Amino acid sequence: MIVPKPVKHEPRPGTFVLDRETSLAADPALSAVAAWLRGELAPVTGGELPPAGSGGIRLTLGDLPPEAYRLTVGRTVEIVAGGPAGAFYGAQTFRQLLPPAAFRRAGGGPFEVPGAYVEDAPRFGWRGCLLDVARHFMTKADVLRFIDLIALHKLNVLHLHLTDDQGWRIEIRRHPRLTEVGAWRKESQTGWNGAMDGRPHGGYYTQEDIKEIVAYAAARHVMVVPEIDLPGHTQAAIAAYPELGNLDTPLEVRTTWGIGQNVLNVEDGTVKFFQDVLDEVLELFPSPYIVLGGDECRKDQWRASPAAQRRIAELGLRDEEELQSWFMRQFDVYLAARERRLVGWDEILEGGLAPGAVVASWRGELGAVAAARAGHDVVNCSNTSVYFDYRQGPGEDEPVPFGTVLTLEDVYAFEPVPAELRGEPAAERVLGAQCGVWTELIDSSRRVDYMAFPRLAAFAETVWCPPERDLPDFHARLAGHLPRLDAIGVEYRRADGPLPWQTRPGVPGRPEDPERWQAQLDAWTSNLRSP
Ligand code: ACM
């Protein structure tokens, strides 16, 4: 019943009893994992899990890869791991061997665990989930809870989409108006019919909040990768500092969805402004990867701007696509000098790609194939497979109805290595994959629960498990997993569709239109120049 499914899981004789007397001991290198596990188990056993004694849980280092572990449950529980991450995953698996009640925050124990032997290690090193906190702000408490949920599924990357047209969500001390102005908008579009809700929305994380989120995630072996989206998706920043934009007229923080016209200008001052922003971002996020977006950048304002046209002429560039590449390269060089790597959405392929850049391929898989063959590392974020803002079933009662249907089973069938790359050395460039919780139409943590679960459980199998799939087996294990989510209080989507209170009547979705969708995808992909 373990999700994601371990590589090997066999029953063994014996039964382990977890109660308030159970001891928990660990090699010094694994003491942080032991502290975390004690924090998870003590509330339900009602005891403190003393560090010494017999009949206990023991975490030890062994000769295994860092994320691998072996778990033996009998009269005692032995977790042998290659490193702290492996010990953490072994401990997560142990929690799943307990009854679902062990996932409640109080009461329930003692618990019996049938004997078992588990050998396990992940298939991919990048097992990510994007959370868009720009379109709708999620409170710090919501983010910490979400980290616990992705860590339960053995994901190890949280990509925080911190900035967009509709909101700037991270305090930057040098440029305070980014949050004073950019974190707030006066209302939000409610669906695809243009209706507005008339309610102000906003919020941001202070630098202390960010440090807390990063540390909390690190204790759960989740790397937080920040995204500062450039040079499109920047209307909130331009609203705060109009000198970053291309127009003489002031802008508001955007209240509608879809691809915007407003993009950064390409002045030296703008490059410097965002390098200053990154100085603070790098201080807060130890991640070797920094996402600088690059997606959906309309070029009309650059075409109309004498300054942008002068820049193209001065630099001897061919067109606005190459201007975007030049712009991104200013930051690639900046990050490389600080031993960080730029991650960009696949549009960064369009005008020549910064060397060393990692491509987050989202418009289907074409970008992943092109980038990997050109020697770039790739994270497969294919919207047609792992975008959790897409509806989960056909039906008009899906509460957040993007037109494209992406069922639980569709997600389970996802293969992170694109078919075209299989058997090629370039397949090694696929670091892993990442699902996305884009929140234009997801306005609360409750809706995040509904859209992300249980699809995230299926996604976790695609990045953790060997490539073979067994859908009936997954369904059977999921049936054992959902009571855990119930115990945690996750308001996931049921197999038979939303509960009545999960529907949102009166918010029309995009019409179900696969042909239009395919046409859009073809238009996007035909824009991709071969690198
Ligand atoms: C994206 O969905 N614009 C990366």
List keywords for this structure.
531 residues; alpha/beta; TIM Barrel; eight-stranded parallel β-barrel; six-stranded mixed beta sheet; 17 helices; 20 strands; globular; binds acetamide
Give a short summary of the structure.
Residues 124-465 form the Glycoside hydrolase family 20 catalytic domain. The chain is an alpha/beta fold.
Structure commentary:
It holds the Pfam family Glyco_hydro_20. Residues 124-465 form the Glycoside hydrolase family 20 catalytic domain. Keywords: Glycosidase, Hydrolase. One of its GO terms (molecular function) is beta-N-acetylhexosaminidase activity. The active site is at 296 (proton donor). With 531 residues, this protein is an alpha/beta fold. The chain folds into two domains: 8-120, Chitobiase/beta-hexosaminidase domain 2-like (Chitobiase, domain 2, 2-Layer Sandwich), CATH 3.30.379.10; 126-526, Glycosidases (TIM Barrel, Alpha-Beta Barrel), CATH 3.20.20. The protein has helices at 31-45, 84-97, 140-152, 177-180, 207-218, 235-240, 268-284, 300-304, 306-315, 320-337, 366-373, 383-386, 408-412, 445-452, 455-464, 471-488, 514-526, and strands spanning 8-18, 24-26, 57-61, 69-73, 77-81, 111-120, 126-132, 157-161, 163-164, 167-168, 184-185, 201-202, 223-230, 289-293, 341-345, 358-361, 378-380, 390-391, 402-405, 430-437. It has an eight-stranded parallel β-barrel with strand order 7-8-13-14-15-16-17-20, surrounded by six helices. Helix 3 (140-152) packs parallel to helix 5 (207-218). The longest helix is centred in the middle third of the chain and has 18 residues, at 320-337. The two termini are 44 Å apart. Bound molecules: acetamide. Acetamide is lined by residues 295-296, 345, 362.
